[in-house]
Amino acid sequence: MADVDHHPASEGSVDPAQAQGAQIPIQSFALPIFPPEAQGLKALTLTSDIKLDEYTKEIESFKPIPALPQGIESLTLELFSLGYPAGFLSALADALPHVKSFDAYSQLLCGITTEAQEDALAFFDKLKELKAIHLLDVFARPGFFQSVGEKLTARPRESQLMFLQFNYTFRHEDEDFLRRIPATELPTFINKNLVMCSFNIAAPEVTDDPDDPTNFSEEGEEFKAKVEGVSAFHKSSAHSLVDALTGENAPEGLRALNTTLYTFTLDDLEKVLRKHKDLLMISATVEVEPTEACKSRLMEAFKVCPELERVEIVGNPTLEFSMAVMNPRRKTLHSTFPSASDMRDLEKTCPKLSHFSANILRTVSTGQVEWNKEGDEWTGGVTVPEQPNQGLDDEVPQALRQHYEEAPPV
């Protein structure tokens, strides 16, 4: 049976009665009995330590869940790659009726059977006080996320989510990666009550670790050049998200928005910003052209949000942009993204703005832009790595070439 590992609040020992959180690694679907001094816990993390070759047997059944501390408001489930036994999640929800925040990491949340999927739906149904969902590299069978999103959005306004985060780490070795994420289902979670809404795509960490599987092909050969950056959903897949953010169920008090998983056109960005003029932070993937006209529209779009403090633009380049950025003489990033003068102009309508960054599909080799407000001055600018070919070779780099070779996700 697993032990209860209380999170220490400092380097020294902590009185279990004072602990706020506990992390429990489990090797089967059996939870320990919590001692009386653990009744003050506010957060619980369950981490799968189940061996992969034993997982399919373990999800056939589970032991009854013992009484859990009723003050727990935050629940985190980590690394349950194949999901849970049918009945486990709903029983967990019954045992923790006051959960307000739910986090899940690296897993197939709805499991591998129809029964497990129905139970996962019941889990969300039973969490009546849920206000925040954070799902990181969480996948599901087709239709699952839409069912959950629609059920949560149908709740009365005062019972709807306030914080929503979907985060995916891009996997270059998986050619079908974006197709595994249901582009049209995720926006069903959007409701009028949201304050923070994030659909983020993150670049994988680049390491020199010989044991890191991302450094090798499926045949086991080490990549000669480190793969970098991300891909985002094609702009044609953004319609459902734009509609959800601007339609009748659009958030009415949104303050932080991240849409980098989806590619917006400039029209999309302008429409969303006009709807949410009180935003404090915006991160968006936007289709960019290597022109001053593109930059002008981009900067004008932000001026309708006077409360903005931080802006991040992930540029999704047209083919013309990708070719141009490889020639240093073109100074493509300078013409596409803001200069110090542009930042001073934007500051006139967005006086609280303190940070602006831009990149091309989260790559480093294509250059980056970063501006920070220090006192009354904007510091930073464009950083472009030296190109050894001096612009004589206009070959599109691998990080961008992959973007054009992929068909738009359905």
Characterization of the model:
The structure is a single chain. The chain has helices at residues 52-58, 88-95, 114-126, 144-153, 239-246, 266-275, 292-302, 319-325, 332-336, 340-349, 398-405; strands at residues 5-6, 21-26, 43-48, 74-78, 101-108, 132-139, 163-169, 196-202, 256-264, 281-288, 310-317, 355-360, 368-374, 377-383. The chain has a 14-stranded mixed β-sheet with strand order 1-2-3-4-5-6-7-8-9-10-11-12-13-14. Helix 3 (114-126) packs parallel to helix 4 (144-153), helix 5 packs parallel to helix 6 and helix 6 packs parallel to helix 7 (292-302). Helices cover 24% and strands 23% of the residues. It is built from eleven helices and 14 strands.
